[in-house]
Design goal:
Layout (H helix, E strand, L loop, with lengths): L4 H19 L11 E4 L3 E2 L7 E3 L5 E3 L24 E5 L6 E9 L2 E8 L9 E7 L2 E8 L8 E10 L5 E9 L5 E10 L1
Antiparallel strand pairs: 1-2, 1-12, 3-6, 4-5, 5-12, 6-11, 7-10, 7-12, 8-9, 8-11
Length: 189
């Protein structure tokens, strides 16, 4: 059987396309995906838990804290992410209250519950944020007696322009006034 030059040409082009497809790197389009670091369950992908310090009982899982005034009954647990939050009370003269989380991404959003107007309870919130060792943000909330007792899903820090890669986020409470931290969750992209 004799193959025409036109048939050989088509066969050569087909082999060329097949070769290019097999050796060329695949083209991908980046899709941003949100991931969550829950206060109790940790990172939804890696399972890595936030680190709470000091580790000597200053931090408590909010739904299981008998000594805490901000607890289920006052808090609508259904409005907390995964029905949990971590609670700590900073007292001047004691070690700083710190929560540290690691993630890899290009954006981060931190959400807390905020104790706003709870009778005979410290509800002042004073948070300092450090990202990769650099101070990046402060969040302060003073009680508002005319508002609700608890605020839910409050964005206390956000940054949508991080270089893509691994990061360490630290939330610290310190200063000259008693302050409460009600950490709920982090979303990163």
């Amino acid at each position: 059987m004799r193959v025409s030059s036109r048939g050989r040409h088509r066969h050569s082009i087909s082999l060329l396309y097949l070769t290019v497809l097999l050796i060329a790197p695949p083209t991908t389009h980046g899709i941003l995906v949100n991931r969550t670091i829950d206060d109790q369950l940790g990172d939804s992908v890696t399972g890595k838990q936030p680190v709470y310090s000091p580790a000597d009982g200053v931090w408590s899982q909010g739904t299981q804290c008998p000594r805490c005034n901000i607890k289920p009954g006052l808090v609508d647990v259904e409005q907390a992410f995964d029905h949990t939050w971590h609670d700590a009370l900073y007292r001047p003269g004691n070690p700083d209250v710190v929560m540290t989380a690691t993630f890899s991404g290009s954006a981060v959003y931190v959400f807390n519950l905020i104790g706003n107007a709870v009778h005979l309870t410290t509800t002042f919130t004073n948070l300092s944020f450090t990202l990769d060792g650099v101070a990046v943000h402060n969040y302060v909330h003073s009680p508002d007696p005319s508002g609700p007792q608890i605020l839910y899903g409050v964005p206390v820090y956000s940054n949508a322009s991080l270089p893509d890669g691994p990061h360490t986020l630290e939330i610290r409470t310190t200063g000259k006034a008693m302050a409460v931290v009600l950490f709920d969750y982090i979303v990163y992209t």
